[in-house]
């Protein structure tokens, strides 16, 4: 994997920066039109989750280049409180805060691959991929 970059998430401005960096990398890769919005929105949702539910964390952006198959790989990592019931958190409309509860299911729906790994007291890692068509 090449073109790795890291964005520390510690403020609302960092969420915007991660969104913009992700969009720029996707564009460089050849994504166009609504795909750029889709990728930027998914990044923005998981970055917002770091800020709202874990206070701080980081986002990694990478290019996946398997020759014939290329895409963008986004990882979000935090050492926040973790999620006690991941299956429940993935349900549309479930929120422990004041949110609509659409961030996680929305990001999963927008991306081609989505995995979430969370441990209470340890933190949360979200990994997602979008392939270039
Ligand atoms: N990084 C995280 N650390 C801890 N808990 C998280 C994290 N991300 C999500 N969660 C938990 O999963 C729930 C669902 O997340 P989701 O993004 O779908 O909704 P939300 O953030 O509450 O609201 P919305 O994103 O619609 O504004 C959250 O309410 C929170 O309890
Ligand atoms: Mg959210």
Structure description:
This protein is of the alpha+beta class and 133 residues long. 39% of the residues lie in helices and 32% in strands. The chain has helices spanning 12-29, 33-54, 86-89, 103-110, and strands at residues 2-9, 57-65, 70-78, 113-119, 123-131. The chain has a five-stranded antiparallel β-sheet, with helices on one face. A hairpin with a 4-residue loop joins strand 2 (57-65) and strand 3. The longest helix is centred in the N-terminal third of the chain and has 22 residues, at 33-54. It starts with a strand and ends with a strand. The mean pLDDT is 96. The structure holds adenosine-5'-triphosphate (ATP) and magnesium ion (MG). Adenosine-5'-triphosphate binds next to helix 2 and helix 4. Magnesium ion binds next to helix 2.
Bound molecules: adenosine-5'-triphosphate, magnesium ion
Could you tell me how far the N terminus lies from the C terminus, measured between alpha carbons in angstroms? Answer: 18 Å
Low-confidence parts: none
What is the radius of gyration? 14 Å
Instruction: Report on the biggest sheet.
Output: 5 strands, antiparallel
Output the number of helix runs: 4
Class per helix and strand makeup? alpha+beta
- Beta content comes to 25-35%
The average pLDDT score comes to: 96
Strand order of the largest sheet: 1-2-3-5-4
Percentage of residues assigned to helices: 25-40%
Map the helices and strands.
Elements: E1 2-9, H1 12-29, H2 33-54, E2 57-65, E3 70-78, H3 86-89, H4 103-110, E4 113-119, E5 123-131
Helix pairs in contact: 1-2, 2-4
Residues 45, 49-50, 52-54, 78, 80-83, 89, 94-97, 99-105, 124 line the site of adenosine-5'-triphosphate.
């Amino acid at each position: 994997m090449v073109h790795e970059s890291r964005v520390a998430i510690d403020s609302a401005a960092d969420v915007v920066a991660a969104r913009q960096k992700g969009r720029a990398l996707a564009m460089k890769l050849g994504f166009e039109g609504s795909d750029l919005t889709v990728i930027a929105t998914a990044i923005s949702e998981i970055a917002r989750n770091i800020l709202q539910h874990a206070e701080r964390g980081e986002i990694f952006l990478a290019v996946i280049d398997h020759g014939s198959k290329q895409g963008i790989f986004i990882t979000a990592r935090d050492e926040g409180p973790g999620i006690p019931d991941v299956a429940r958190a993935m349900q549309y409309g479930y929120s422990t805060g004041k949110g609509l509860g659409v961030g996680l299911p929305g990001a999963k729906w927008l991306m081609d691959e989505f995995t979430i790994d969370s441990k209470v007291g340890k933190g949360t890692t979200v990994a997602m991929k979008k392939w270039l068509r």
